[in-house]
Design goal:
This protein is mainly α. The chain has 2 domains: 226 residues, no CATH class; 99 residues, no CATH class. 45% of the residues lie in helices and 6% in strands. The protein contains 15 helices and 7 strands. β5 and β6 form a beta hairpin. α8 crosses α9 and α8 packs antiparallel against α11. The longest helix has 29 residues. It is elongated and about 75 Å long. It binds iron/sulfur cluster (SF4) (2 copies). One iron/sulfur cluster (SF4) binds next to loops.
């Protein structure tokens, strides 16, 4: 979904979003080279190449729908086709149909990346697989299957997503309040006209309009983004303990799953000697010395690798695992990830 690293994640954002959330352009966000959509490492296994990670129906704020419509390209055709179904067509924007949302919440743990019938209505063939790539929403911009910085990177994108989503939502509500939504049964052309007007309204916003829109939630999310970004390249804490979610066999040793089933770390089997010493009591440097003494094949760099992949964490670290932070930003997941250090 992300496509193309940092520039891809923020490129073509409407200017008012970056005025309300300047961190999106001021901070150096990770490029996420491992999430290389043009040569998707997940296509084939574990994801179906016919859908990859786009087993998803994004909620598009009205002004993004309008921006996609006025491009007069494949994306606008896809959006117009989506507008034919009134389910999910609202003054806020275009959300997933209710039946789709119910099925997604029920089956996403097993069907994400696999169920072809869930393919996004805006999907097209090609490297980025997205007909509305320039106008995609916060989730599609910030979702990465792998994170070059591991768990700290995942945490950063979750808070960036929260900030971007809050701003998107604020602008979508402003458009609805100023323009008034069409009648639910109005023809598609009327809805398309409404969304085009939303896009124009956002284009015309001035700095004074935006100052009035700054609210405590956005300010607090901006501060949180700066804080989590500052911790991106932090050192391994002195004392860590294993939090292994899954162990899989691998030709080169073992594959250990920490924070995400899709970003495991592969290490020789002697990693278990090290994990046994990382007991959450003694400092990791001492644990490493003991492990190397017991098995000289243990490497010093493994501690950092294990830390970045969430295979070892502070004992007090809550269960910050990969989650389905979708359009509605599941509050439980968000709180859990935001509160983890
Ligand atoms: S799974 Fe999605 S985000 Fe990851 S590389 Fe493939 S297309 Fe990109
Ligand atoms: S909008 Fe684009 S990136 Fe997002 S799910 Fe659809 S096809 Fe994928």
């Amino acid at each position: 979904m992300s496509g193309g690293g940092q520039n891809g994640s923020i490129r073509h954002l409407p200017l008012p979003i970056t005025w309300l959330a300047p961190e999106l352009v001021e901070l150096e966000l990770p490029e996420e080279r491992a999430s290389s959509c043009a040569s998707c490492p997940m296509a084939g296994a574990p994801f179906d190449p016919a859908v990859r990670c786009c087993t998803y129906h994004p909620s598009l704020p009205g002004y993004l729908v309008g921006r996609a419509l006025r491009r007069a390209d494949t994306g606008s055709e896809r959006v117009l086709a989506r507008l034919e179904d009134p389910d999910g067509r609202t003054g806020w924007g275009v959300r997933a149909p209710r039946a789709w949302q119910r099925e997604y919440r029920r089956d996403r743990e097993v069907a994400f990346g696999r169920r072809v019938s869930w393919r996004c209505p805006y999907w097209v063939e090609g490297p980025l697989s997205c007909s509305i790539w320039r106008d995609r929403n916060a989730v599609c911009r910030t979702w990465h299957c792998k994170h070059d910085d591991g768990l700290p990177g995942h945490r950063l994108w979750v808070v960036v997503r929260g900030l971007m989503h809050a701003v998107e939502d604020t602008l979508a509500r402003l458009c609805e309040a100023r323009l008034g939504a069409p009648d639910p049964d109005a023809p598609v052309e009327v809805w398309a006209g409404y969304y085009l007007a939303c896009a124009e309204l956002v284009d015309r916003l001035e700095a004074e309009d935006l100052l009035a829109l700054e609210d405590p939630e956005i300010l607090s999310l901006r501060a949180r983004v700066r804080e989590v970004h500052g911790a991106l390249h932090g050192e391994v804490p002195d004392v860590v303990a294993p939090q292994v979610a899954e162990v899989r066999e691998h030709p080169d040793g073992v594959e250990l799953v920490g924070y995400s089933p899709w970003n495991p770390v592969v290490l020789p089997r002697s990693v278990f000697v090290l994990l046994a010493e990382l007991d959450g009591e003694r400092p990791w440097r001492e644990a490493l010395e003991r492990a190397v003494a017991a098995d000289p094949s243990v490497q010093a760099g493994w501690v950092e690798l294990l830390w970045r992949h969430g295979v070892v964490r502070r004992k007090s670290d809550p269960d910050a695992t990969w989650g389905f932070e979708g359009d509605d930003l599941d509050p439980d997941t968000l709180d859990r990830v935001l509160s983890s250090g």
